[in-house]
Amino acid sequence: MNNINWGIIGCGDVTEKKSGPAFNKVPGSKLVAVMRRDAAKAEDYAQRHHISKWYSNADKMMAEAGINAIYIATPPSSHLDYAVSALNKGFNVYVEKPVTRNAAEAEQIAEAVKKSGLKLTVAHYRRAVPMFLHVKALLDSDVIGDVRTVQIRMWQARKPKLVADVANNWRVQPDVSGGGYFHDLAPHQLDLMLYYFGEPEHYNGFSINQSGATPADDHVCGQILFKNKVVVNGSWCFNVAESETIDSCEIIGTKGKIMFPFFGNFVTLKTDSEEKTVEFVHPEHIQHPMITKIVAYFKGEGPNPCAIEEAVILTKIMDSFTLKS
Question: Which one of 106, 281, 290, 292 has the fewest beta carbons within 10 angstroms of its own beta carbon?
């Protein structure tokens, strides 16, 4: 496969700048076609982004557009069906996070990947962003010693500024998103924990709907014990005063700590001898580095930057925090 010719299923907000334009900026990659159920919006997207083909039906796009890879950027409720359909039709797949609404659906995708023998990557793109690679380099250098605990706090008001404002607000409709804002934001955070610390041994938590403002739970707490004895504690609340919002991760070790926001642009290292903050300028298209790695993987020139098996573990962790017994 010398060139990766992409078709997007679901050319909505996330594809406008975060991902869509990057497909044409990676050597050997081209965005050929886009699909959205609203034909007028699909046509508008194609014209604005200078894409030659647009569709309102995914099957028709996959049959006619001359593509060999699919990027699924719809809400999570349709990820399973679109991913399995694309794999069955012979396409390699890049699928947005969360990969599915729950672990049972993620396992079905994993089985479809195994059966097809094709390639699928999940959009945990922070694994390729320089700021988060800097954190990994600090951890690997042992500058803070043995990691003892990680404290994650994501507290936001009822309409988080970190989330795109859309008319139907599907993110707080559990049948579409899998849950609430936790399901939209926490995959980025929890996947980095897996990327940094490896295989988890135990995880549990709980969630409640404190405000009753939406059908989704708005307060989630969870903890993970990794096999290397790192302990992660997380608190996600989407029901606090604007003045009390926070996006914070503290990785605390025997020699110091690393502090950073998941949706910010700086990393602070603090030890007994120094405190240093490094600021970052994120890529214009935040998924560009990840898409570069995916194109290499699809062409057989590099490893999978985030396999479905890893996403299955992530969804199991999220389920353990949010599913009611």
Answer: 281
What pTM was estimated for this model as a whole?
0.96
189 and 299 inside one domain = no
N- to C-terminal Cα distance for the chain?
Answer: 46
Asked if 323 and 101 touch (Cβ cutoff 8 Å), the reply is no
What residue type is assigned to position 222 of the chain?
A: G
Mean pLDDT to the nearest integer, 193-205? 98
Q: How far is CA 268 from CA 134, 137, 259, 279, in A?
A: 11, 13, 5, 9
Residue-range definition of the domain harbouring residue 221: 130-282
248: which 2 tokens? 């914070």
Sheet arrangement for strand 29-35: 53-55, 29-35, 4-9, 69-72, 92-95, 120-122
Cα–Cα distance measured from residue 233 to residue 137, given in angstroms and rounded to the nearest whole number = 22
Looking at the DSSP bridge assignments, the partners of residue 266 are 279
CATH number at residue 200: 3.30.360.10
Do 64 and 136 lie in a common domain?
Answer: no
CA distance 152 to 260: 10
Residue 324, pLDDT > 90, answer no
**238-255: pLDDT as tens digits:** 999 999 999 999 999 999
Q: With a cut of 70, say whether residue 325 has pLDDT above it.
A: no
Q: Tens digits of per-residue pLDDT, 98-111?
A: 999 999 999 999 99
Count of structural domains within the chain: 2
| pLDDT computed for residue 166 by the predictor | 66
Beta strands in the chain (DSSP E): 4-9, 29-35, 53-55, 69-72, 92-95, 120-122, 147-155, 200-208, 219-226, 231-237, 246-253, 256-260, 266-271, 275-279
Q: Does any domain span residue 318?
A: no
3-state SS, residue 216:
coil
